Amino acid sequence: MRHLLWAGCFQLLPWQAGPCTRKLTTAVTSAVATSHCGPWLLAPLATSSSSPSVSKGFLQPPILGSRAPCCWGSQFNVPPSALLVARPVGVCSMMRLPVQASAQGLDAAFVGVPLDTGTSNRPGARFGPRQIRAESAMVRRYNGSTGAAPFDSLRVADIGDVNVNLYNLPDSCRLIRESYQEIVASGCVPLTLGGEHTITYPILQALAAKHGPVGLVHVDAHTDTGDTALGEKIYHGTPFRRCVEERLLDCSRVVQIGVRGSSYDPDPYEYSRQQGFWVVPAEECWMKSLEPLMGEVRAQMGDKPVYISFDIDGLDPAYAPGTGTPEIAGLTPAQALEIIRGCKGLNIVGCDLVEVAPMYDVSGNTALLGANLLFEMLCVLPGVRTL
Ligand SMILES: [Mn+2]
C-alpha cells in the first residue's frame, strides 16, 4: 500500500546469545514446527563452539509477500505465546502479530495513524501507535472474560502506519482517506491506533463511501463537534461536525458517552442534540454499571453498520493521564470494558482508539489501556467465535 509505512523492517533481528540456550532454541523450533506459536520464523544460523550451551540464532520476521506469515498449521495469524517467545523479542507490532504491507486477505487489521498536529493542547499523540504496540506485548490471544477467540475466527495482522503529513492537516486527511479506502475495499475491518481525533473524520469518509452513513458509538470527554478554532475547520475538536456536514453519520444512531468538563457555552451539547445524537454525560455514568445503557445502545444501533470511536480521554485521567486534553471525573476502565463488550452483536465496520500521548504517563498504563481496549474491540467484531 503506497501510503503505509511498515511498522517493522526486514533486517534479521539478532537473538541475543546470552539468555538463549540450546534448550530454548530446540523448544521453540519444535513448537514452530508443530503448532501455533507466533509470527517469527526461526532461522538458527550457527552454534558457538566455545560455548556449546549457547546457540546463536536469529528470529526472522516472516518473508512477506512470498509466503504466508505465521500460519503454523492453520489459516490464521496468531500472537506468539510468551511461553515460547520472550515478550521483548521481535519487531514491535500490535500484539506481536505479523506485519504485512496491505490488508489483502485479512478480515481485520491494526493500523497506526501517528498524527497529532491537530491537537489543541498537549501534543504527543503522534507517538501513540508506537507505545500502544509496545504495551500490547502483554495482551494474549484469548479473552478469558468473554470467551472470545478472535484469532481462531479472523485473519488479523498489523499493516503498519499511514504516512501522514505532519505539516499539513488537510493533506493528512487525504492520505488517511485514501489509505482507508484501500483497506476497506478488500473487505477488511480497520482497528486504528491513534493519533488524535482529527483522524476519525477521513476514516469515516472512507467507511461511509463503502457502507453509507454509519452509526457511531463515541466515547470521549468531549463531543468534538466544534465548528472552527483559530479560523480552521480541521482539528481534533471538529471531526464529528465535519462528518455530519458530509452525511457520513446516521445521526439517529449516534451515542456520545462520557462527555464532561467546562465549556465555552452554557449548553455545550446543544449541537449534538440538535443533530439527534444521544448524549450521555459522564455524570450519568458515575458509580454504576453501563450494561443497561449498552442494552439501549444496541437497540438504537440495530443491525446497520456501526463505527466505534474511543477517545482515551473518556476515561478518568487517574487511569489514563497520557492524553492531550484530560478532564477530571471520567469513566473507569471497567466501564470502558462494559461499553465495548456491550457492542457485541452489532454490525461493526471499524474502530479506533485515539489520543494516547504516551509522554504524559511514565508508567505506560495509558498505552496499556489503549492496547487492551483495541483487543476488546477486536473481540466484538462480527464473526468472532466465542469458546
Ligand atoms: Mn476526542
Automatic annotation (TrEMBL):
SUPFAM superfamilies in the cross-refs: Arginase/deacetylase
Alphabetically ordered keywords of this record = Hydrolase, Manganese, Metal-binding, Signal
Tell me which cofactor or cofactors this protein depends on.
Answer: Mn(2+)
Signal peptide bounds: 1-17
Q: Name one Pfam family in it.
A: Arginase
Which BP terms in the Gene Ontology apply to this protein? putrescine biosynthetic process from arginine, via agmatine
List the molecular function annotations (GO) for this entry.
agmatinase activity; guanidinobutyrase activity; metal ion binding
**Family assignment?**
Belongs to the arginase family. Agmatinase subfamily.
Note the PANTHER family from the entry: ARGINASE/AGMATINASE (PTHR11358), GUANIDINO ACID HYDROLASE, MITOCHONDRIAL (PTHR11358:SF26)
Q: Which NCBIfam families does this UniProt record tie to the protein? A: agmatinase
Protein name per Swiss-Prot or TrEMBL:
Agmatinase, mitochondrial
